[in-house]
Specification:
mainly alpha; globular
């Protein structure tokens, strides 16, 4: 009986290890752990090295939502309906006009126009909230514009996925946000800190801050993280 139990345990461990190995390979190859919602049998846009670097600016939310950044495959019909509904609910975007209006707001104003002044006028209040987050506890935060820059990339790519925008239209905003981030921050680490801090300012009592922070930590530290093989600097990427 005990031998049978050991056999079952070994089989379960083997399956678990195989699943982990597949997730790591997907992260290494595509920048996402699970591609079940994407139709990999249909032709997919293969982004250039510069485009991958631009998409990496939005990697925190892409990683949380399971969006690959090293390939742009089509979303399967059922999850596409769900994703479009979520974007309409949270962003008020259901067509090209609304997409462009939101992207222009993120580019020209965003939350940073208000949050940066709040950060300067109430530094003790906000820094105490940041310090309560394990990821930010040992990181200095002076600029939260990353919250807008990353979301600009996310919204542009989502709207491309939904056929609200062409890739050329979406890329203008991805490229713009990436260049702005490169002028504002000096590393993935400082950028991630600005994003997490901006999210805390957006919704101080939100219960997903720790999950977002752990995603940022994974992207910075994990062996298979897409950020590990995509340098912060060197943009556009030469030779693509």
């Amino acid at each position: 009986m005990f031998e049978w139990l050991r056999t079952i345990a070994t089989m379960l461990d083997s399956k678990k290890m195989a699943a982990i190995a597949l997730e790591n390979e997907n992260i290494r190859k595509y920048g996402a752990s699970d591609l079940d919602e994407f139709d990999l049998d249909k032709p997919a846009r293969q982004p250039t090295a510069t485009e991958i670097r631009g998409l990496a600016t939005g990697a925190i939310l892409f990683f949380v939502g399971g969006n690959p950044i090293k390939l742009l495959p089509r979303i399967k019909p059922e999850p596409l309906v769900e994703r479009k509904a979520a974007t309409a609910e949270w962003w008020g975007i259901s067509n090209a006009e609304e997409a462009l209006d939101t992207l222009e707001w993120l580019r020209e104003e965003g939350h940073r126009s208000k949050y940066q002044s709040q950060l300067k006028s109430q530094p003790m209040h906000w820094q105490s909230l940041f310090a309560a987050n394990p990821f930010l506890k040992t990181r200095a935060v002076t600029n939260v514009a990353a919250w807008d820059y990353a979301r600009q990339v996310n919204v542009a790519r989502w709207c491309y996925d939904y056929d609200y925008l062409t890739w050329e239209e979406a890329w203008q905003y991805i490229d713009d946000a990436t260049q702005a981030a490169l002028h504002t921050y000096d590393s993935w680490d400082s950028f991630a800190a600005g994003f997490v801090a901006g999210r805390i300012m957006w919704a101080p009592d939100n219960d997903l801050h720790d999950h977002i922070a752990e995603t940022a930590r994974y992207l910075i530290e994990a062996r298979y993280s897409p950020w590990r093989d995509i340098p912060w600097l060197t943009y556009p990427v030469v030779g693509n």
